[in-house]
Amino acid sequence: MRTKKSILNFLTDAIPFIILGVLGFIKIRLFIDVFGVEVNSLVQLATQVFAYLALAEAGFGTAVIYKLYEPLANKNKEQVKSIVKGSIAIFRKIGIIIFIGGLVVSIVTPFVIKTEELAPIFISIVFFLYSIQYLVDYMFGLPYHTLLQADQNKYIVNTFRNGFKIIFRIIEVILITIGFNLIMIILIDIFVALISNLLIIRKTKKEYSWLNFDNVEADNSAVGITKDVFVHKISSIIFSKTDILILSIFLNLTAVTIYAAYEYIAKFLTEMMSRFFTAVSASFGNIFAEKKNTNDTYYEMLAFSFWSTIIICATFQFGINAFISIWIGNEFVLPFITSFLFTIIIFGRILIKPIYVIRDANGLFKESKMFTIMQAVCNIVLSIIFVQFWGIFGVLLATVISSQLILIPFNVKLTYKKVLDKSIFDYYKWYIISFGLFLILYYINQLVLNIVSFDNIWVLILIISIVFVINIIVITIIFYIINKDFKKFVKRFLK
Which helix (H) or strand (E) holds 68? Predict the structure, then answer.
């Protein structure tokens, strides 16, 4: 049943994510063509700023999910109701804090960023509307999202949220095409988010008919865990959201658009894989709550992550510069060595996910927070130094150094020692093998690129798709032969 729910959670997340990703490619191109580079960069900047404001959440959602694993596994309904009731009040307080922070940012931002095209009042309104959008989630849906995710029913959230997102994104593309006002588009987005959250609440109360809060004392114990989870939230934000801020301060908004174009594709690929790991994380949490052995399942998941990382990275590096050139223009293309750093970042982002699943399912937030701080400090300090010498390349190099030398090694050592009781050699053996296979596959792909030609986006997409399928076939055959855990994973999935 756990495997079936994990697959259902993954499919209801991954398929809409692909659709939204494709619509997002269209949206970005239209955004630049219709509204201009500076408006596109402003929206990207707003996204990064509110990622920082969301630190007010302090990892509370993650802590609530962790607290719910055991009572859900033991079918302790009273404790579940108590935890959910406590989370509702705290989520609403967090939402108000983020909203107030958004108001402050909307007033200050026009005086901070350098632009000659955008009016201060326009900048303020955009940031203000984004603060309302965040408020909607925290005031309504998030307590119910966490319950559904902890109980392996994230597919319910996915169905409503992603369904409405797809509808809105299609409408958004049409409205941008006809030159509709950006402010009105954001207002429509807020309305859609409100409706989807209300429907999720209604569905949750129907699925959990016993979920009433009369005469129930609120359990706020999850707050105690957040001080450790908060550190990880900060690290995650610095790792993934700092670069655009640094580029906007030390370089210009054009550099933001160039970086954001590559990052959109890199994030699309890594987030796609994150959908899988999010889908299985609740299963691992329930298994650990029931004191069952998870080592075999973990190694199957790890084998899958190595297999998928090779294929994704080889295909990304094969087509990224050509795709950027045709998608938004040759002036936005980065040198090979800079784009290759994006590939290394993708490699690390995917391969750390299985480690996070095991670490978080066991609540090892306190044990891992010190080296998480080290990674965050290293990343931001090196980014500020390197960007002044090497621009975008310097920012990416800082990310690679902090992740490959701090984030990954320390998390691997912790989980293998504390949870799996295995040597870290098991992990790094396949890490090295996978990177070697990636390099070989990329070299073969380049031979293909040298003998084909393309003059439009559809021909390029066809070529990339063919290369992608060939990569899947080649790596699947190799892994099925050399990796017994991957063979087990394939058999489990086919069941």
Answer: helix 60-73
